[in-house]
Amino acid sequence: MNKNILTDLKTYAFKEVTFDKLMQNRINKVLIVCSNYDFYMLEEDGRIEERIFNEYTSLNLRHPPSFIHANSAKRAIKMMEFHQIDIVITWLDIGNYNAFETSKKIKEIFPNVPIAALSHHSSILRSKLEKENTDSIDFIFHWNGNADIFLAIIKLTEDRMNAKVDINEIGVKAILLVEDSLKFYSRYIPLIYKVILKQTQGLMSEGLNEHRKMLIMRGRPKILLATTYEEGISLFDTYKNNLLGVISDVNYYKDGVRNKEAGFLFLNYVRNYKRYFPFLMQSSNASNEKRTLDLKGKFLYKHSETLGVDIKNYIIKYFAFGDFEFWDPTQMEVIATAKDLSEFQKAIKIVSEDCLMYHATRSEFSKWLKSRALFPLADLLSVIEYDEFENNDQIRDFLINAIKAYRVYRSRGVIVKFNKNKYDEFVVYARIGEGNLGGKGRGLAFIDSFLKRNNLYNKYENVTITIPRTVVISTEVFDQFIETHKLIKFAADCTDDEKILQEFISKDLPAWALEDIKAFLKTTKCPIAVRSSSMLEDSNYQPFAGVFATYMIPDSEINKKVEMVSNAVKSVIASAFFESSKSYLKAISHTIEEDKMAVILQEVVGKQYQDVYYPNISGVARSINFYPIGDEKASEGIANIALGLGEIIVGGGQTLRFSPYYPKKVLQLSTPGSAQRDTQQYFYGLNLDPDSYKVSTCEAINKKKITIRQAEKHGSLKFVASTYDLQNNTIRPGVMHDGIRVITFDHVLKYNTFPLPQILQELLRVGQREMRSPIEIEFAVKLDVSTGKPKEFSFLQIRPIIESMETGCKLPESLNISETIIYSESALGNGKYQNIFDIVYVKPETFNSANTREIANAVEEMNKKFVKLDKPYILVGPGRWGSSDPWLGIPVLWSQISAAKIIVESGLNNFRIDPSQGTHFFQNLTSFKVGYLTINPFIKDGFYDLDYLNQQEAVFEDTYLRHISFKNELTVIIDGENNKAAIFKEGISLGKSNLNLEDSLDELPPEGFI
Fold first, then answer.
1. Which of 533, 688, 678, 512 minimizes the C-alpha distance to 600?
2. d(CA 897, CA 931)
3. Where is mean pLDDT largest: 29-38, 292-301, 601-610?
4. Alpha helices of 912-971 — where are they, by DSSP H?
5. Which residues lie below 8 Å from residue 483, measured CB to CB, with a gap of 6+?
6. Which DSSP string do the residues of 766-835 spell out, in sequence order?
7. What's the predicted TM-score (pTM) here?
8. 8 Å CB contact between 697 and 621
9. Which residues lie closer than 8 Å to 889 by C-beta, 6 or more apart?
């Protein structure tokens, strides 16, 4: 055994069971070769197919085979030429000496098609079989009129066809039957299959959703049949590591002659391999019982009136098919039982040490798990040497932790169907209801699956990469809620967000959904994020970033928490009908009836600090960098990180920007002055007072804005801050020195105490490859963890970046800047923007940071005019458009500037700006292919001919804005390759794009495409 398993259980890599690769060879069509009379008797007036179908259905099996009939070898061969036959079943009758010849002819032409034979007369048939060459017949069975034999023949054949791959390569378990009596094995095999299939039906409770339940059926134990000693030994040696046990007769052929000791020789052989290996001896001679028991085997008398019941009970008990019974050898009684893994885990905690060791030393834990198709956990426990533990308590702890680790592993990458009676903290992702998961919900499920597929969960030492525990309330709840309360017409007609919210809050969620929500909340003590997941959200063509609401609910007494979460869910649903959502839908030619809302309930990543809760790092990263600086490349991506909740990032606040490939080269930290001026000054935390949450259209209703100075008391700055030494004008790492705290993340980015740059490189690379497009991800990091526990990187969201890359346009190298109104060397977008006649600009002389909210309202009124006229325009203003911080720019929502086709961020002498990335606002601008220019003319970064605009006659002008409408279309070109852009003065045009034919060849369709 690898001793590292004991110490590294948290990072132990369970081997995935590829259930979908099991049972690749199936019996789909059966050819029965017999006389018309025999077939009629077999069919009982045409019912054989119906009986097999009913048998399959009752056992929850899929793919029942179909049957066709041939009454001669010639006809059978003819039919096999035109039909894909998987097995031939022929009739052996003592009076019919052509049956062997028929099988021989079929086998010569179709050597790979198995042939099974049935006969009424097994005892008389034996002597004939010994005289005839039966190599052409694979199986011979006794027919007693029970259709179960057909199920047995089909399943036995399928098991033999799939044994090599399914048992030895994937790990499916098997039962070996060594018996040469036609009558007895024809009775045993259908009986054992019935027990196995009924057992597997019970195991379906271990399936986390309907698909997984059906896959588990493929992992049922197989039956291997041997009729001689040599065949039995060969099968045992080939599959012994995955055998549940052996059932053997005593008297059968060995070395070509019948041997009355064959069964005991086989038992001795098995005992030399493993002392406690289950072995059932069955014999028609009752005197063989004592010797069997002496060899630690079990015995059944073949002529017992209750043989069927006895063999069924043995399989259930000794092949671990039933509930696990915890036997205490000291008390001599069963002290606990477990019917599934959850109960098994609970029992392990409470059973006595004697009981624990009794089962552990006999490998009975792993045996029981194997019979239930829980192969990865069984394989782990089967290699453990229990004498390597220091004491029994250590064994108990190991077993409990192993089960916990497996249950978490098992649920990863799987969308679990929520079951309020079985749901617990080991389920990572579950869905309530049968509806759609919505875009964000799909994205989370996709993240979970690709983390598992690429083995990223524990790739980095002492770090776990995962999604937070998540439950998605599917669109079925949305549909039922809207339809039951007849809300659609009201929501469509009402234009007051507050009225819509109050109307939705006054209605009840479906009772069944509320019960499921309560069951989830009972399993967690974390605050809960209630997030939107619209069907159109984060899609490949319209990301809807930040359009709908997200609320956070603190932990509380369960009934209070259910009430708050219920109200938050209804608030998220209501946000689908708020004015901003309707504007967005209208802009992309959708109606409110087309979009449906799923809602995500997710544990909030972070830790409690006094009366607030927040993560040590929140961040957004993109796989494409539209503003590469220095050695950075566009393809290497970019990240923005902040202390606290992510609101400051998506709202456009001051955060730290860095390239994952150059984490030590951060422009904002290039000088002590810029480190103070351009880094984070405050952050957001969730208010943990339950009374702080109120029903509101404002998502930030219970979020506290906290200054860096206030956070000193929390003890969280030690992970992310440095100290400005005023006396020496330098930045010192850490917070051990006196001075001003600066959020530099030096511990992470410079000293690599947490591998954030490497993780982002990996996730951006893998995520982009998996989505086949540039991506944006949101994440949160918890660094403040207990000793011995791994730090947590939580992957919160993934969405495609809708690039504005159209047919390329190049600006001439000899561009005359005086011919432009605006020239930028920091531009996002690509191509020639047409049908633009209007420019709206903020008047610099009246601009004041204190008035940015008033300016936002003025811009909104102007934008409404353009929306009504369906006209695009150019919008120019100082600072960051869309910033949630009014001191950094004009705090507009996307809906307030939705008609703008070109957005220009212009710096002023006292209002320098950097290109802003990382906001939902920014994401929507790029998705709508809006040209995005940044200029700071006062430091010769770009050009802005304000005098030219001031000389034009204004269509509209007020205190803050001026609107110019030109008679002729303006020429607007963005050179995406070089991040340059120019807005030319009226009447100046560059004519056709100077893109040459060779450059455009890749854009052309293949020859003959049209």
1. 533
2. 13
3. 601-610
4. 920-927, 946-951
5. none
6. HHHHHHTS-EEEEEEEE----TTSPEEEEEEEEEE------S-----TT--GGGEEEEESSEE--EEE-S
7. 0.69
8. no
9. 652, 852, 877, 878, 879, 880, 881, 882, 883, 905, 913, 916
